[in-house]
């Protein structure tokens, strides 16, 4: 039975595979269907498989889940439909002369869907839980293995230090940033993306 997935953007479908998660496994999704939603900012998509039971973006494994949750979360940068990277939570970044340190400045006043303000410490926590995962449900992400350290310089500045220069480093900055002091990501995910998670009915819908 095909599942009706409500309120997701068309760009999510275009960006399959571009959303960086921790230890993501690829699973094919077939038989997808899209139709215009009731409102201009809604799209209804039918997927052949149900979503993961755990909606934490760092623990999801199914391609269909990543399609949907892409719209709930932001990274420091975000992929565009043409394959480029654009600012998301970060308004700018600077690179050191030796190309080993990347310093990101967060946009002012960005809030999670629960009203909490995004802080540099959330970015640090989000990356560290994936670089050296203590939770067995989070698999180490090869895209992050060149990160030697990540620190919060202040509330809106984050610095990454690499083991060696890496031309692909910025692509890993699409990793979902989530609040450190929120423990319901698995069932009621909170992010900063263009769409807010409302509810889920297993084997049927997610809004």
From TrEMBL:
Keywords, in A-Z order: Signal, Transport
GO biological process: peptide transport
Entry keyword annotation includes Signal: yes
GO molecular function ontology, one term from the record: peptide transmembrane transporter activity
Annotated Pfam families: SBP_bac_5
InterPro entries registered for this protein in UniProt: SBP_5 (IPR039424), SBP_5_dom (IPR000914)
Keyword Signal carried by entry: yes
Residue ranges of domain Solute-binding protein family in the record: 85-207
Family, per entry: Belongs to the bacterial solute-binding protein 5 family.
Name of this chain's protein: Dipeptide-binding protein
Organism field: gut metagenome
